[in-house]
Write a structure and sequence with these properties.
Elements: H1 7-14, H2 18-44, H3 48-64, H4 70-79, H5 90-110
Length: 113
């Protein structure tokens, strides 16, 4: 399976320092899973303010690793400013959740975490 995150982006951020790359991966794995869970719960509970906060918080970390989810995260942020029900955004939420679950596994494998 090909990587969903960008090794090139990670190398660029870490200055090609493999130890620092592992630190970035570890931080991502510590911070993003609970934020993702909270985002999913916020959307399911139609808590738009909380959903916005978590989507907005996760966005730079997702972009930092070159994960192609910008459109979905932006869609979630935009949804929070509407009166639409959560069912209208669940496709994006599911895509973010499923993609990041794969990234978590890839990072754990690639960095022996």
């Amino acid at each position: 399976m090909s990587k969903i995150y960008s090794t090139d982006s990670l190398k660029e951020i870490a200055g090609d320092d493999s130890d620092f790359m592992a630190v970035i991966a570890q931080a991502f794995l510590e911070e993003i899973p609970p934020d993702l869970k909270a985002l999913v719960m916020a959307v399911q509970n139609d808590n738009k303010e909380l959903a916005y906060q978590f989507a907005h918080k996760m966005k730079p970390n997702i972009e930092m690793l070159g994960i192609d989810l910008s459109k979905d995260v932006t869609a979630i942020e935009s949804w929070t400013k509407t009166s639409k029900s959560s069912t209208t955004i669940m496709t994006s939420v599911d895509r973010v959740n499923e993609t990041l679950q794969i990234v978590f596994e890839q990072l754990k494998r690639d960095f022996n975490i």
